[in-house]
Every structure is written in structure tokens, then in C-alpha cells.
Amino acid sequence: MLNATELIGYIAGALTTFAFVPQVVRLYRLKHSRDISLPTFSMFGMGVVFWLTYGMMLRSWPIIMWNAITLVLAITVVILTIKYRRSNPSDAASE
User: Are the C-beta atoms of 12 and 5 separated by less than 8 Å?
Assistant: First the structure.
């Protein structure tokens, strides 16, 4: 049975994690990355690594689970951004 603190953690994690799904889908569908800030997503990804580490140290499953998923999404954005900038160099002009 979840306590109120864990429930809030799961809800907060779900909302902040799923907020990135539309960005990943849009990036994949449009096949261009000119609207993506690579430095921002790279720093964000590093922050998520630290949140994930923090969650592991606390053994907090909401923090671990949602940050692991968010890290996958952030890495996906970075990889697709790099891929589409290589295939479409004009995308890099927005940096």
C-alpha cells in the first residue's frame, strides 16, 4: 500500500516525465531539430542522472523509476537532435 508521500512522488514523476513525450514524438515525426537546444537538454540529462543517483541512495522508487524513464527520453532527444543536425545542417543554426 502506498503512503501519501509516495503517491505524490509517483504523480509528480508521471506528470514531469510524460511532459517530454510530445517533444520526442514531434522531433521524431518532423525529422528536424532546429527548435531543440542541445546544451539545455544535455544539462537537463546530467541533472536527471544526479536525481536518479539521489533516488538510488534514498532507495526511493518514485524518484528512481521516473528519473530512469526521463533519462531515456532526454537521451532520445539528444540522439535525435544530433542525428537530424548531421542530416540537415541548417538545424544547427538555432544554437
Answer: no
Contact assessment for residue 27 and residue 33, using Cβ atoms and an 8 Å cutoff: yes
**How confident is the model over 21-37, as pLDDT tens digits?**
998 999 999 888 888 88
Distance CA 39, CA 65 (A): 24
CATH number, domain at 68?
A: 1.20.1280.290
- pLDDT tens, residue by residue, 61-80: 999 999 999 999 999 999 99
- Which domain, by its residues, includes 75? 4-94
pTM here? 0.83
Domain count, the chain: 1
